[in-house]
Amino acid sequence: MFVIGSDLFVVSPLLPMIAADYGIQPGLAGLMVTLFSVSYMFSAPLLGVLADRIGCAPVLTYCLIAFGAANLITAESDSFAALLAARMVAGATAAGVSPSVYALVAGAAPSVQRATWMAVVVSGLLLSLSFGAPIGLLAGALHGWQIVFAALGILSLILAWTSTCVWREEQHAQRAAAQHSPLAVNLVIAPLAPTVIWSASLYAMYTYLGEGLDSFGYSASEIVSVILFYGWGAIVGILVGGRMTDRFGAKSTTVIALAGLALCFLLLRFAVEAKVLVNLAFGLSSATAQLFFSAQQVRLANKFPAHRTTILAWNNSALFLGISLGSMIGGLVTTIAGFDAELMISAAIAVIGWVVNRVDSSVPVSAERSPSPTAITQHRRLQRPSEIPRGERC
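^ thats the sequence. predicted structure below, dont judge the formating
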């Protein structure tokens, strides 16, 4: 997840170098990010269905190989068109990696620690924002941007080999169920709506964070400090959110996260305007926001146990859809009314997410709760040892 995240987040700081090498405007070079995201969003559900049918482990391995090849081609592209094509392939294959990892970990984790394990996985993605992107920028400045994508490609190929050693267990029962009962699209709209609204609320603010703080007279060093606190807050939030979910349940954690996020956006407005405790306010907001994601993943995995990879892939697509919507809303509001108004709009979107989340929570779903220890024990007695995921064996 650290490699996947680094590949996504490192492009932004490298854009000036890439644009200069190809003799194009940085705005045009930004198509790399757009095509990566769009390709990811549309490919994730398809690869999720494939993983539920043939197994997560093979899809993970094949997609890592293709992802590594796409990054090596990115490093060697002699035209901007070839570069964009390589980034589209990278986005499409990354869409097969993340949901497969989520599903494999969710299946291997003990049921009472599933959210904590998932949170550790997501923390790899967030660490790439704090460490992967800066390290990539430094390496690109010293040796050229091509070496960054070449290194990511090589790392991906190494991970493809190690994944065949780590994930030998096949999820036989899950695949069999998926083959006989395909997941209908209309069943996932309501459960995925909170993800779309949550990410739209969060990224409407984050996309224009630097520009917004600059408009209030914050210096470059102050903005960097805010982003650093924001990144560390996200890591703390995702880990705490995992433990909260295991202790209090996914439903309660998502409700707390969305309500808290709305309040934090209001707090941010006053902190930014007064220039008081700004770093702590952004760190708290980021931590509160990230309580949501692992809880939502566990909730979806428990609702659709026979289609775990498919639903987690859909959740990733919903995340990218929300990011796109949030960026558009944020750009429009910031241009018309300023960053302070954008914070208010983000708070309003979070409140809408809280309401939608509550409505979806009121719909009874038999598989929403994790199975009880007694049920797990009885089920395990009927399974051969080879069929029990490694992480749950005694």
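Residues 1-182 form a domain with the Growth Hormone; Chain: A; fold (CATH 1.20.1250.20).
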